[in-house]
Design goal:
188 residues, Lipocalin, 13% helix, 8-stranded antiparallel barrel, single chain, 2 helices, mainly beta
C-alpha cells in the first residue's frame, strides 16, 4: 500500500499547481508608490519608474505561489529633481552601492503577503495587505490579474537615518514609509 502513497501525493501536488500560471508585470499599468510625512504637516509621494517582478498566480484560488520584485533604486521619482538626487545619495538609498530594492514573498495567508525586503543592503521582514482586484481576458485573449499591495516600513530599520530637526520641534522626514503598490500583470 505504501508504494501507492508517493505517486498519489505527487499527483495531488501537481494538480494543486495546475491552476498556477506565471505572469509578467505590465509596467504601463502598474505603479510602485510610497509616501512619507514631510515636516510633520504634509505627505510627499513618489514612485519608482523601473522594476521587474516574478509572479506565479493561481487565478482559481486567487493566491500567489511566488511573488518577487526587483526595483531599480536609481529610478526613484518624486517629481522634484533636487529631492530625487538627494534620495539617490548616501544620505538615503546610496545607489552607487545599493542599486536595487528587492522583495521576496515567503508566504501568503488570509489576504496578507509575508516576505523579506532588502533596502540599502539590509533585509527585514515585511507584511503587505493584498487585494486582488480581478482576473480577466484582455482583447488579445491573454489572462490579466490586477492587485494592490499596501504596507509600512520604518526607514531607520534599513539604515536610512538622515534627518534635520525643525526649529519648532519635530523632524523634517518621518520614519514611517507608506507603501502603495498597484500591479496589472499578464499571463505568459
Amino acid at each position: 500500500m505504501n508504494y501507492l502513497l508517493k505517486p498519489i501525493m505527487a499527483l495531488v501536488f501537481f494538480l494543486s499547481l495546475s491552476n498556477a500560471k506565471e505572469f509578467v508585470i505590465d509596467n504601463t499599468h502598474s505603479n510602485i508608490g510610497f509616501s512619507v510625512k514631510h515636516m510633520m504637516i504634509s505627505n510627499v509621494k513618489g514612485n519608482f519608474n523601473a522594476y521587474t517582478a516574478d509572479i506565479d498566480f493561481d487565478a482559481e484560488k486567487k493566491i500567489f505561489n511566488k511573488l518577487s520584485a526587483k526595483i531599480d533604486a536609481t529610478s526613484v521619482d518624486t517629481g522634484i529633481a533636487k529631492r530625487d538626487d538627494h534620495l539617490r545619495s548616501s544620505d538615503f538609498f546610496d545607489v552607487t552601492k545599493f542599486k536595487t530594492v528587492d522583495f521576496v514573498m515567503t508566504s501568503m495567508q488570509e489576504g496578507k503577503v509575508y516576505g523579506k525586503i532588502t533596502i540599502h543592503g539590509i533585509t527585514k521582514d515585511i507584511v503587505l495587505v493584498s487585494t486582488i482586484h480581478g482576473v480577466i481576458k484582455d482583447f488579445q485573449g491573454h489572462q490579466r490579474v490586477g492587485f494592490s499591495l499596501e504596507g509600512k516600513l520604518n526607514r531607520k530599520d534599513f539604515g536610512l537615518t538622515w534627518n534635520k530637526i525643525l526649529e519648532g520641534g519635530g523632524l523634517t522626514v518621518d520614519d514611517t514609509i507608506n507603501l502603495a503598490i498597484e500591479v496589472e500583470a499578464i499571463e505568459l
